[in-house]
Amino acid sequence: MRNDIIMKRLLSIVILSALVLTSCSMASTDAGDKAAVSDGTVTAAGTGDKAEQSDMKSDDSVRSAVDFDHELEEYRPEKDNYNFYFTYKIVHPWWDAVALGMEDAQRKFLDKGITITYEYMAPDAASAEDQKRRLDEAKNGDYDVIGVDVADAEVISPVLDEMVDSGCKVMTFSSSDAREGCKRIAYVGNTHNYEDGADLTEALCEKLGYKGKVAILVGSVGAPCHEERALGAKDTIAKYADMEIVATEYDMDSVDMAYELTLKILDKNPDLDGIICCNMSNPVGAARAIIERGSDTVIVGMDHDEEALRYLKDGIIYCLGVQDCYSIGFDTLQIAVMIADGNMPGQLFEEETNEITTVIFQDDAALMHELLYGDE
Amino acid sequence: MKKQMTRKTFILTAVIGGVLLMVMTIFNTFESSRQTVTATNEAVSEVSSFYLEAMADRRSKTITNLIDSNFDQMEKAVAFIDDQHIGSEKELRDTIGNIKSLLSLGRFALVDNDNVVYTQYTTYTGGSRHSFLAKEQMDERSVSSVSIYGSSKQLCLAAPTPDLKIAGKQYKASFVQIDVSEVVDLLAFEDEGRTYFGLYSKNGENISGTELGPYIAKHNLFDSIKGVIPEQTWNENHDNFLNSVEGSITFTADGIEETLCYVPVEETDWMMVVLIRESVIHDRIRSVSEKSLSITKRQVAFTLVFCILFFGVLMNMLKTLLNKDLEAEKENTNNFRNMANTDSLTGVRNKHAYSEAEAYLNQRIRENDIDKLAIVVCDINGLKIVNDTLGHAAGDKLIKDASALICEYFTHGAVYRIGGDEFTVILQEKGYDTMHEVMAEINRVIEDNIKKNEVVVSIGYSKLTPEDQLVHDVFERADQMMYQRKQQLKSMGAPTRNE
């Protein structure tokens, strides 16, 4: 009997020791895991001034930045045919990536015997007025759901409210939601644009030692995603006394304009230390200008443009925030079907379906390029 | 003696000839195998380049045919749409759907002048998505390879449609997109793992996603071979790619020689590259050669064993035949000798045999090699009378009776008929020892025969004495004694020549 008690005590000590060691190990692993997730933004293992990180962790973060392997939810659509209308800010490769996710979902529905037809339209230049016109036309069309990537929240939100009031099923998608309080049914896309802007700016500040002059390139005027990122950037800069914003410009989602604007900013501020780019065209135009001027200005920016990834690989761009466009497209079409069937946010889908942004650095560029565009 | 030499020469010649024949066969076989392997190895290098070029060319043409076929189908599709008098977007979608199934056009679409793309299920603004739409106006068909977001690659074939108007709207182009993976499936080699192919862009980027051997794998071709080949060769081949010129590269990586050939794929900016591992060809040929050599060795060994066994059997048969001949010859010789030494009437040895025996015994006497020797001389009494009165047949019978009598008693002696009525018996050893007993017995019978009028033989004998030089000496004494006995028998009534 006494031996049994001794044995039990020994066993307890062993188990306790094992638990303590396991906890320590897990704590250590967590501490060593560089990929940090905050408000939907994932920071991949980086380079430069970032601390040493495991390459494997970095690769995992990069690989999960865009999810190309989707399956439809178990939801059973009520109809065999659906017809949707989607409109987005501007004809641009970023939305082409979203379109591929939509087409994947469309094929998967087709495999289940459900035919989905849709229009996916945008103007060549971002314009709230153009979007308003398109929505007016769509309102009278035979569409089960109308999806909008809001060009200008102030202009478009009332239009959406009016459409909903008139019986249209309206959702927003991709990068820009309508303003708060809008009657649109749901939003699928980036819900953390402010944080994305703040995270990129934080990385830039760290790189610059929290001291220096920076410029902000925004995309389209009034485009919620661009404006929110710019706001996140401004608020971050404001935290550091030795950081100064010397210019804020809008490129209207044009690479050429981003290039021209950067040259002008550099002319006025030859000692510019950094540029914060809030959309996909900004970093490409900025990098071209930086190269042309031979400047060592540090660029942080958004998205997955192939040219931008090459600049990242070459060290011209310091870091990029890559959004999961494919998932945005896939989920948009899937939720559009649910909305078309009369479902409202709740158990089936969230009012806001968040898609992640992954901040990648120079060492991640080659892998990201391979994942998105194949081997160079 | 001369005959024996001929046989030995024959056997020796047969053996040496056989061995030489086998050695020559083995040598020729091995030499032939070696030369075949060497010649094949030399041929491999020459053939592989030609073979690779042909393979690359064939596959390149497959792609060109695919492109041409798709353009033809697109042309038919556009003509079909034009004939349908389509009035709405929905009708257009349905028609495109029908065309896709009818003409097996996977991803067929139309583009209007605003760069809006119309497919079976979607209508989208495609200005940024399709590079061929960058031009304001399309004047000719275009072929481009597109890297799709998500790393898949497609071949985009677009053709202008200047005359196509649907519901009053002008359409500028039609296009199809073909997954490069589908093209790759068309080109796949059966001998995967030995022959590789890949589609590359002008800057060496792998488009097909296929592995070009273990060294280059799926990477950029020129990045992979940089440092492996001389810089000048690298530059030449790089320029060939940029200028769509065919060529080949041989390099050694990880100790293995690789050869690749590339040819431009017509109508595209692709290069079809085919790589074959020469080591694989060499190994395969070596394997085949070794297998062939092994078979040859076994055949040679089998032939060798067979030849040895065959020659063994042949020699044995020859030996048997020769032995038989020898035996027959010996027998013939003996027969002839017997015939020469035998008296045909009585069957005992004749005078010739006695002469041989006498010569032999004389030799032994000379050598003092004999001590027990006695000669018995026998003469038939009254033979002439019988011949004259009763005829020769009766005389012959008398001779035979006399011979039988002599042989009956001198069983341990050699009996010779040395004349018409004269016999001699040579006694040695036991015959010699029992001579007196035999003489007494036979003389008693002879004396009885006188009374019975049967054969009477006068017998004299003599033993070899130390003074005798020859058998003849002994014979003379025996002969004298025989004459004395003849006289004695005459007195006892035996017939004689004089009566």
Question: What can you tell me about this protein's structure?
Answer:
The complex is a heterodimer of chains A (376) and B (499). Chain A contains twelve helices and 14 strands. In chain A, the strands form two sheets. Chain A has an eight-stranded mixed sheet with strand order 1-2-14-12-11-10-8-9, sandwiched between helices. A six-stranded parallel sheet of chain A has the order 4-3-5-6-7-13, sandwiched between helices. In chain A, α2 (55-63) packs parallel to α12 (362-373), α3 (93-111) crosses α11 and α4 packs parallel to α5 (153-165). Chain A folds into two domains: 81-191 and 325-355, Rossmann fold, CATH 3.40.50; 193-323, 3-Layer(aba) Sandwich (Rossmann fold), CATH 3.40.50.2300. Chain A has helices spanning 2-32, 55-63, 93-111, 128-139, 153-165, 193-208, 224-238, 255-268, 281-293, 306-314, 325-340, 362-373; strands spanning 36-38, 41-43, 81-87, 115-121, 145-148, 170-174, 187-189, 212-218, 243-250, 274-277, 298-302, 317-323, 352-354, 357-361. With 376 residues, chain A is of the alpha/beta class. In chain B, α1 packs antiparallel against α2, α1 packs antiparallel against α7 (278-341) and α9 (383-390) runs antiparallel to α10 (392-409). Chain B is an alpha+beta fold. In chain B, strands 1, 2, 3, 4, 5, 6 and 7 form a seven-stranded antiparallel sheet that branches. Chain B is rod-shaped. Chain B has a domain at 351-491: Reverse transcriptase/Diguanylate cyclase domain (Alpha-Beta Plaits, 2-Layer Sandwich). Chain B has helices spanning 2-84, 89-103, 180-187, 213-216, 221-225, 231-242, 278-341, 351-366, 383-390, 392-409, 429-433, 435-452, 471-491, and strands at residues 107-112, 116-118, 122-125, 142-147, 153-160, 165-166, 169-179, 195-200, 247-253, 256-264, 271-277, 373-380, 413-417, 422-428, 457-463. In chain B, 31% of the residues are buried.
